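lol so apparently i was supposed to do this last week
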Amino acid sequence: MKTRWYKDAVIYQIYPRSFCDGNGDGIGDIKGIISKLDYIKSLGVDAVWLSPVYKSPNDDNGYDISDYRDIMDEFGTLDDWKEMLDGMHARGIRLVMDLVVNHTSDEHAWFVESRNKDSEYRDYYIWRKGRGKNGKKPPNNWTSNFVGPAWEYDEESGEWYLHLFSKKQPDLNWENPKVRQEVADICNYWFDLGVDGFRCDVITYISKQKGLPNGKVKFPIIGQEKYTVGPHYHEYMHELNQRSFSKYDSMTVGESIGITPDNAGEAIDERVEELDTVFSFDHMGVDFAMDVLPRKFNLAKYKKILNRWQQLPKTCQPTIFLENHDQPRCLPRFVGDYKDKRELAGMALATSMLFMRATPYIYQGQEIGMTNCNFKEEDYLDIMATRVFQLIKKYFPPLMPYAKKVMLKRARDHARTPMQWTDGENAGFSTTKPWMLVNPNYKEINVADNENREDSLLNFYRKAIAYRKGKDVIINGEFSLVYPKDKNIFAYIREYQGRKLFVLVNYKNKPVKFKMPKELTFTNANLALSNYSDSRPAPENMTLREYEAAVYELE
Ligand code: NOJ
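anyway here it is w/ 1-deoxynojirimycin bound
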């Protein structure tokens, strides 16, 4: 029976490689997570989304899986994993695993077999003859999300295989019923071990357009539109739901490029029985999860996008996130030059996201306001940044300074620097030199320091999450924007059975005037939360201070 627990849940994302190293080899692992379970519990979150921990050669840090039923050696063993799950459940925290089934690793046994044309696994992947005289041109013009052609030639069989990510991540052929059954079996395997849900990686890519037609050339990304929400997408998701998701009290969230407020009903309405929720990327100002092209933040546009999701029918549950392992840190992106007001700005962002009608996700380090890192070229380790640099150096060397500038703002590496636990050696992440550069600002930004200050960002997150818990007005209330076009203030009202919640946030590092709208009448006001100790007890015409954020209960 589905209890839809996720409607009143806050979910914390862990990127295991960078969270905590338990065995002193410089790489985050499951033992490290176990050692931080009390910390996670102290945040008040209800569930953890754990990025992949399965066996993987790590071409894309675990998003290239070579065995779906076992744990990566660097992260520990299945027994460690079970201990972690028990530890979470004992603390009332659910576990949402990452499900990466658009593609496998090229080292997965299925793909190794599939290289043989006569194998029954050949049709588990998307193999095609090439174009041109000798078939030496790829079957179509699609490019991978990591830049360059989405096809790799296999000398032995004289055919090409499709990979929408790196060439070590061959796409599965979901048209093959055996593949779909394998995926359902994998999900049920983990459900039977006790997991509570899945975050489904690039799930809208699973059904490709019939005949794999050429895409429109949009350098450096080509033909995206040809591989999202293909003709059988809904059929496959409903089937997976019936074979697996619906049998458990689970929650699923799709990384669903191509699902918009206009078509969300077809994908997440409770009645269609596919996924429960999706992540969309429109509010992040990107066209898809790994889009690195820089764009300017516009608050009015941002509010408009979020509002469209908020207005979905009650049978569709939105999500909200500001960070994840593919996105740079949220502060510079949303609040501009925060200077010495980093924590106030972090509180402003927390306040505006946590009280929407949505399941909020907080990414590790967001709760202490971790920032982007001032990387040198050699510090980047992620396949995205390193490939872009490599290709630019080869084909357009004069563009290197520009590429470096872009990566300083947009590389995925920014979210992957080790979690800053203390101001001690290696930021308390590991006893050895970590696999990746620690952001030098750990001396100033770390969990231990936040714990010591009552008014820290971390403690603000704790208060806000605790305040959110179990409140009907937040879980079910109507959402309406106040001054939707205002470029400085993000304000909204939540309303449920006569109770109102008014959320008021200044997004700017300067004082901003606020005028109470006439229609916002009340007889009683209670200041429930704010990031200044002396915010006004009731909303009225006022000047909001730099990044001032307040939540009022109105009657
Ligand atoms: C989306 C994941 O979030 C990202 O980290 C990964 O590189 C791609 N999917 C490929 O699995």
